Every structure is written in C-alpha cells, then in structure tokens.
Amino acid sequence: MTISPAARAEAEALFAAFRATGAAPVEADVLQPAGTLLDLYGEDIRARAYVTQDPLRGEMVLRPDFTVPVVQAHMSDGAEPARYCYMGEVFRKQDHLGPRASEYLQVGFEVFDRDAPKADAEVFALFARLLAPLAPKALTGDIGILLAAIEGLTTTPRRKAALRRHVWRPRRFRALLDRFAGRAPVSEARARLLGHLKTDSAEALMQAAGPLTGLRGADEIADRARALIEDAEAPPIAAPEAALLYDLLGLAAPADSALAHLRGIQPLMPAIAPAVDRFEARLTALRAHGIDTASLPFEASHGRTTLEYYDGFVFTFHAGDAGAETPPLASGGRYDALTAILGQGRSIPAVGGIIRPALVAERKGA
Amino acid sequence: MSLKIGVPSKGRLMEKTFDWFGARGVTMARTGSEREYAGAVEGIDGVELVLLSAGEIPRELAAGRIHLGVTGSDLVRDKLADWNKQVAELAPLGFGHADLIIAVPACWIDVDTLDDLDAAASAFRAKHGFRLRIATKYHRLVRDFLTANGVADYQLVDSQGATEGTVKNLTAEAIADITSTGETLRANHLKILTDAVIHRSQATLFLSHRADWGAERAVLEALVAKLGLSAPALSG
C-alpha cells in the first residue's frame, strides 16, 4: 500500500512536535541484522518481519520497528538522560487478508531517564496532547504489578520463573497457574512418569526408552526429571493466594480506583507494594501534566498479548469508534528488561511509544 | 471456456483421484505418451484436466488459474494465508490420510506434552544459548499451532525431506512432520507428543474463490450434481 501524502504530512508534523520537546532525531537502517531481533523475539518476529539473505552480512530483516536500533544507538554513544525521536517506514508481514498495511510510517519518541514515573508520565502526556484533537480512547496498564505479584507467590522459584516467562502468553499462563494451584489435573503421561520414577532412576528409564539421540543430553533430561519430582512434591499454591492473582489479572477500572483496589489487597500481597508505589507515583506525575487519573482507564492485563517487550507501564490510544480489529493510533510502554538484554546486564530504564500517522491522517480526514 | 480442474500429476495420489472421480461417473485419464502431462475427462462436458504437482495446486487455486483442485488439506492450510477465504473445501476424498504431528526423541522421558516441550525448550535455551530447533516444512501450520498453545523459546528450521533424520544429525532437537503409520518415526527413535496433532490431513477437492466463475458456473453445477455433492456458494 502506498503511503499517502496526507500520512507523510502528518508524520512530518508529529516528528516536528517531538523534536520541539528537545528530543534528538535518530536515523536507523531499513536493513537490520536478523540475529538480534530473532534472538529477542523468536519465531513471533519471523512470522511478522521480512527476513532476507545478504551475501556478506547473512540474514537481515526489513526494520519491523525502531526500538532496537534506537536502544543500540543510545548504548553506543548516548548520555543520560536522553530523549530521541524518529520517523520512517516499518515493515510487517500481514498473515490475514484485510486492510492492515504491511508497509507504513511510524513516528516515535523514546526517553532514557532513571526517574521512571516521571518519564512514563512525560511520554503518555505528550502523546495525549498530540492526539487530543482526535479525542481518542486511552487505555493503560502496568505489567510490573503482575510481575511483582508473581514474585510474591508462596511457591517454588521454578514455578515463579515459569509464570514470569509466560506473562505475555495469557493462555499458557492460565494453564500453568491452574496446574500450580491444583485446579487442573496432572496429565496422564506425567502421572505415569512420576510413577516410574518412584522405582527407577531417570537414567534407567532413558535406557529403556531408546538410544540417546540428539543434542539434548542425558544430564539435561535427568535434571528435568528431578525438577518434575520436586514439583510433584511441592504443595499447590494456596487457594486464597491464587484467587488474588486471578482477581488481579482481571482488574479493570479507572486508574485512581484501580490504585485504591491495589492498596486494599496489598496487605494480602505485600510483594506488590513497591510496584504499587511506582503506580501511585506515576499517577501523581500524570496529574501534574493535567491528565485526569480519576477517569483514565486502567487494565492490569493490558499489553500482555503484544510482543514480549513491555515490562512496566503500557498504554494505547484507539480512535473513538474503531473496532477491535483496527490497530491503535498509538502505543507504547516501558521496556527495561529489553534494554537489560541488549545492554548485556547494564540497566538502562527506557520508555517510549509510536504513533501511526496514516491512521491519524485518516481520522482527521474522516 | 471450460472448468479447469487441477489434479496431482503422478503416483498414488493421481491414481486414487482418478478412481474417486471414476466411481462417480467422471472418467479421467492421462493422454499422449507416458511422459506427457496431458489428460482428458469423459462423462461430463466442459471440464478440462490440468495435471500439476500436488504442492503447486494450492498456489494455482489461490491465483485462480484453476477452478477446482485436488491436493492435501495440509498443503492448502500451510501454503495459503487465510486459506478458507481463498478456497473452499468441496469434499474430503477419503484417501491420502496423514497427521501433522510434533515428535521428540524417545529417550526424552520427561517430555510427552506441549507443556513439557515448552519447559524443555526454556531449559535448553538457557543451557545451549540458542532456541530449541524444530525441523519442519510446514512453517505456517506449526508456528500458528505453537503460538496458539503458548510454546516459547523454540525456532523452526527448514527441512524439505528426511526430516526424521535431523535429530540424529544434530541439526534439530525435535521435528514437526506428517506421518501415517509412525513407522519412520519409530525407526528414528522418535515419539509423538500426546497433545500435538496439528492437523489431520487427507486429499481434498477444493474450489477457488479467485477463479473466473462465468460460464463455468453451469459446468460446476452439473459436476457437483454428478459427484453427489451439494452446490457450493460462490463469492462474487
């Protein structure tokens, strides 16, 4: 789909507005090395990005977003705090017939600042101001509260790690939580294996099952067998504790009411206290920017189905009458975990977002 | 103008297709020399036989260059995005049965389900520094299935044949492939995950929504009547 002159003009205007805040403009190559992105996002990105072969540089992708190159640019020669903005085409394969473009413009703004609540509020308020003429529907969330709640569960570190790993895959998360809470039965195959492991060693069972084939070694198989025995012996997550987590996953309320609710359950889930403090500080900072937090929609599970990416504050802006199928006008959030991976342990708190100028132009023309 | 029907150009799939149509009064046969890909249809007017590789039939249906086509339901689902918007299933033909499954080494006593595969993939990535590799040629079907089931930390590696051998050759840790009896899997010391039947495939007669359905509409009606099928809804 050709990028319309109206979309390009809108992109230029938004880019100018971002620059006017003092943000430094960043350029990024359209062709990005595939390795980093594939390692970060896995098969999800292979399904969505155009992967191609370069005779000298190996597998390359057509830029699916700007976040990774911007983070890399910041890490190689940026000083903190820093604000960056960018504008350009991104490329996403669309696997369904329909109006979604596979090549479109993004205009983005990213903040690297250690005062997280202040930076979160700054980004959200800037987006809200730029989109205000369209009267969009905003929705916010906070993955950090979910992660803190998981950390606080009274269960084994292995179960917590499994839940943490699947925060972004709600279906598997639910299945795991059901199993750890004793709500779902153990699979027949698992029960049989645990039965065998009562009388035989893992090594003996492997020998009986067949020759050792492939790269996954006998030690790895035996390790997991031990982990399964340990897991079977661990008590289920207590029902009231699991109920609190289910309740938290379903929390949807205006931000101020959500805060009151979280403060209410905090004595039962003390581990979420620091995350709720951050939430409160963010709401205070948002109010300082003139955002009405008494009516700002908040959903604890918002942002869980996007790429494995955001781990704190998340937000989207949708056109007022847009259906669920339409992509948001703008989206963004905090991605400290991603910068930690790219920085090989160096922590670089980061928050940002993108606007789709084509959708903005379309709404303005409508 | 004639209604073009694409049929696999050789082997058991072709013979079984000819048998299926023959049993319903539509005789298909190859014509010319043994090596020439030409065919004829008797018993109904206005139908043209197009002999094609089974693997190309989904693409030809999607492009609308053939009106009808016989191929595996697995190939259509894997090769066509939103397959059921591009083509319609007219009839399963009752042969060419095969299941697309996920298999792992039989010695993995700790892995029997997708839940296990996911946990093993997580540990494998932590230990080896790369994602657990699943060899397949059915990229779309396998990826959609694993995404829907929330499996992470894997990667697909392409394997266009002898997929069962990739594990032994250390180019993959697991495979996703079609099997009918499971014999090749067992011979290569692999076992099927209990909850990972991705698709049960069989030879199927498909209709192209993209093809030009002008005068061919009447031929289609006559053909489906003769085959004892209900008339499909044509879009457009």
From TrEMBL, chain A:
Keywords: Glycosyltransferase, Transferase. It comes from Gemmobacter lutimaris. L-histidine binds at D65, F66, T67, R92, Q106, E110, R304, Y309, Y310. It comes from the Bacteria. One of its GO terms (cellular component) is cytoplasm. NCBIfam families: PRK12295.1-5. Signal peptide: none annotated. Residues 11-249 form the Class II Histidinyl-tRNA synthetase (HisRS)-like catalytic core domain. This is ATP phosphoribosyltransferase regulatory subunit. GO terms for molecular function: glycosyltransferase activity; histidine-tRNA ligase activity.
Automatic annotation (TrEMBL), chain B:
One of its GO terms (biological process) is L-histidine biosynthetic process. Residues 54-226 form the ATP phosphoribosyltransferase catalytic domain. Keywords: Amino-acid biosynthesis, Glycosyltransferase, Histidine biosynthesis, Transferase. SUPFAM superfamilies: Periplasmic binding protein-like II. One of its GO terms (molecular function) is ATP phosphoribosyltransferase activity. It catalyses: 1-(5-phospho-beta-D-ribosyl)-ATP + diphosphate = 5-phospho-alpha-D-ribose 1-diphosphate + ATP. Its EC number is 2.4.2.17. One of its GO terms (cellular component) is cytoplasm. Catalyzes the condensation of ATP and 5-phosphoribose 1-diphosphate to form N'-(5'-phosphoribosyl)-ATP (PR-ATP). Has a crucial role in the pathway because the rate of histidine biosynthesis seems to be controlled primarily by regulation of HisG enzymatic activity. This is ATP phosphoribosyltransferase. It comes from Gemmobacter lutimaris.
